[in-house]
Specification:
Elements (H helix, E strand, L loop, with lengths): L1 H21 L32 E7 L3 H17 L1 E4 L2 E4 L4 E7 L1 H12 L3 H10 L3 H9 L2 H7 L6 H12 L5 H6 L5 E8 L5 E3 L2 H6 L9 H8 L9 E4 L20 H11 L9 E5 L10 H10 L2 H4 L8 E10 L17 H38 L7 E13 L6 H8 L9 H17 L1 H16 L1
Parallel strand pairs: 1-4, 1-9, 4-5, 9-10
Antiparallel strand pairs: 2-3, 5-6, 5-8, 7-8
Helix pairs in contact: 2-3, 2-4, 2-16, 5-7, 7-10
Amino acid sequence: MKHWTFFIATSGRALTLAVALLLTACSSARPWVNAPRPSPLPIEAVSQPREAKPVVVAVALSGGGARAAAFGLGVLKGMKAADFTVDGRPTTLLDEVVQISGVSGGSILAAHYAAFGDATLERFEPDFLLYPFEARLLQELLWPQRLYQLSSPWYGRSHLLAERLDTLYRGMTFADVRRRPGAPELIITATDLTTGAPFDFTDEKFELICSDVNATPLSFAVAASSAVPLLLSPLTLQNHAGHCPGRASPLPVAADTSYRTQLLRQSIDSYRNATERPFIHLVDGGVTDNLGVRLTLDRMMAGGSMTASFAEAAPGTLHQLVLVTVNAERGLAERIDSSDRVPGTAQVLESLIFGAGSRESQVTLGILSDDLKRWRAELVSTRGQPGSPFAADAELHVINLSLHDERDDRLRDRLLRVPTAFSVEAQDVRDLQKAGARALQEAPEFRALMQSLRSMGTSH
């Protein structure tokens, strides 16, 4: 927690100076705010259906600051090295990624890869991981100009983070990402501070609030996903619900009565009344789902079946479905239950963020395991059938990767204690990337997948 403790101390000094400034002036600075969705949407802003591919890969990158980003980068590099042939075309596992999602630290990497593609494999390390990002952020927090901005009731510390990230992403929006040929679908997840439910930056969620995700800067979404409560300020979206005539239902929900589907419906309904909820305040996505896959799982459950999730695919076109989850949660620096002393503020904060977050990750993995059994049973019963999008040899592979998979005990213990911060030591950056690539290569499900992919290349 040393990085966060320093952040708190520095923020306290900055606040003292800001109070002094308030005696003479109060800023009216207003950062970017989402506008109502244009009606109709511009043609270039409308998501076009993707051509069905034989191999469909999705990647979910967890939270964990620069530690998670470095570990995730190692996984992406490992996926780029996993080559095979499909339909006579040489490709790699990374080249077949159609969706990448991220939470908190993982969202920094996910947005970068969606924006720049393979260039991320070379640029992300010098541009973010080895750049003194956190030190620069703390320095700017003490600039007179920044202190004046922070005296505005509409400008918080996370807006400063968003401005720093905007440089990393070269000012790109979600629309810019979607215009890049071959770019995967990007999903960034934050947490709705009022409801405690995940909030993802997607067409469906922005349709609910009558806004346009395409106009949203990548930096805003990533800063919202990374806004650790208390340390960073919430970021705010305006709810324009009620101003979109002729809106279609943004999310098909089957007649499912499970508790998960009920919660999803409640979350959807909470955004429909802009009179009661005119503003939506967002914080770190890791508060509710540090793996960034819960909403996807719940939506597939609500949709009724896995087949319904691929309704646009032509019959028999899907051969391999792959989900890679990358979990870079850290271990606790110390166990508060080993002492009878009253835990300090930093200890409580760490336990709440990392201890409770770890439990939620286990819950999510448990849900994923249960869903996986159901999906595989469905796949076996429907593949190769008339009208089914799944080919007769279709398979489903879920590859769960974690820092806990590192076999070297000493290295694993050290990496699990790398602070959750926007900057980590250069040696840790290198070791985390190696650990990510190694975790992928040694995963049994990955090996089974590659065997299937290479066999598919010889039979198609």
